Amino acid sequence: MKLTFDPMTIEHLGFKMYSHLPNAVAELVANAFDADASHVTVGVVISPAPAVFVTDDGHGMSASDLQDKYLRIGRNRVKEGERMSESGKRRAAGKKGLGKLALFGIGTKVEIRTKRYASGQRHVIKMDWDEMLAADGEYQPESWLEDAPSDEHGTTVTISSLKRKTAIVGEDLARSLARLFNYVDQDFQVVVSLPEQQEFPVTRDPRIAVLEHRSRIRVANPRRCSARR
Description:
Number of strands: 10
Largest sheet: 8 strands, mixed
CATH class: Alpha Beta
Structural class: alpha+beta
Distance between the termini: 47 Å
Number of helices: 8
Strand order of the largest sheet: 7-5-4-8-3-2-9-10
Number of domains: 1
């Protein structure tokens, strides 16, 4: 596996572009949606070190998917004719191929564990932000294969060495994701899971509440809204 990039570009598009946890996690949720996942878990790890992970039951990535798609910075899937998900049932949510860099805005280490259905092996890749910047434009992350049950499929992305110092509030994260990502329905469910076995579903309700609030503001202050536009 090899990732090729311009060091200045990747630094600008990484932690300088994304610094808020919900925005970075929303990129992974969008990836899960595009992978035809039906269930996504956003998990928080406290011990032995703080980390955030996103697990989906989508179709997973093969070796060629990882090299030719995931590890290509700025890949435009729309221009390459991939406007729909692999099943053809969903319009692609992610388009510009920059989501992987968003993760480094909240942590300096990223691990990807992914497996296609019917394959007997899982691909694992570990990326380190500091090593990437020191690689002078051609980075070879640590990667290996491990045996896995053939009926498993999906992807787990774990972000560690977090820059965030404050505790992650599950309810707040779920509410923020609901406002950022509007594809949640009965066919695509997202839940935020905390170590204390607390779970907070990401629903459309907070987003609808925000839209209704904005609508009321427009009705009450039509001149002010027109001025903003």
